Amino acid sequence: MITNAGGPGVLAADALISAGGQFAELSKETVEVLNRELPAAWSHSNPIDILGDAGPDRYLQAAQAAARDANTDGILAILTPQSMTDPTGQPRNSRRSPRPPPRRFFASWMGGEEVAAGSEILRAANIPTFDFPDQAAQIFHNMWRYRSNLQSLYETVTLPSSFETAKRKRKRMRSSPKAARRGGRFSASILPSNCWQALWD
């Protein structure tokens, strides 16, 4: 998650965790890249708080680093209008940000009419855009859960190797009394009465 304000980031985080999701842990390599590209006061964790004075280039740098991280399933970019905010410049850069599968890119441009032009740019680029970050987080988690459930339906069920071993042992145990009976090795005097049914099964 990339945000220029801590409050909306917390809102999205609470929604994701409440739905059963979790944040990706940024790899050491990703943190090192962000340390080079972002101001020293960035959050140094996920959510990636790029600070209130973030411009389009900072959003792009953070999005590129997050998209390259193998732990990332999706990216949510949050923008709140502030004095340095460019609500149309950020979406133009976001469209150029790499989104390799299976990563997904979501946006929450908060601010109504003030950010409407930026939201339109994102929607034209087929990037889902939401008014509120918690809504975006919940929908992302629902999509991830649906995809995970769908994959599990197509997985081939395999039995553990111990199952075949147990099956062979059970077969030998069943055949032993019958073989002994055919060989005449049992005497009625030494068999309990409840064994006779097993011999004839």
Unreliable residue runs: 98-102, 186-191, 195-201
CATH fold-level assignment of the domain at 2-138: Rossmann fold
Largest sheet: 5 strands, parallel
Helix content estimate: 40-55%
CATH class of the domain at 2-138 equals Alpha Beta
CATH superfamily of the domain at 2-138: Succinyl-CoA synthetase domains
Discrete helix count: 8
The class by helix and strand makeup works out as alpha/beta
Number of strands: 5
User: From N to C, what is the helix and strand string?
Assistant: EHHEHEHEHEHHH
Mean pLDDT: 78
The CATH level-2 architecture of the domain at 2-138 is identified as: 3-Layer(aba) Sandwich
The radius of gyration computed from the alpha-carbon positions, rounded to a whole number of angstroms, is 30 Å
Sum up the overall morphology in one term: elongated
The side-by-side strand order for the widest beta sheet comes to 2-1-3-4-5
Oligomer status: single chain
Task: Write structural notes for this entry.
The chain is an alpha/beta fold. It has a domain at 2-138: Succinyl-CoA synthetase domains (Rossmann fold), CATH 3.40.50.261. The protein is 50% helix and 9% strand. The chain has a 5-stranded parallel beta sheet, sandwiched between helices. It is elongated. It starts with a strand and ends with a helix. Mean pLDDT is 78; it is low at 98-102, 186-191 and 195-201.
TL;DR of this structure?
The protein is an alpha/beta fold and 201 residues long.
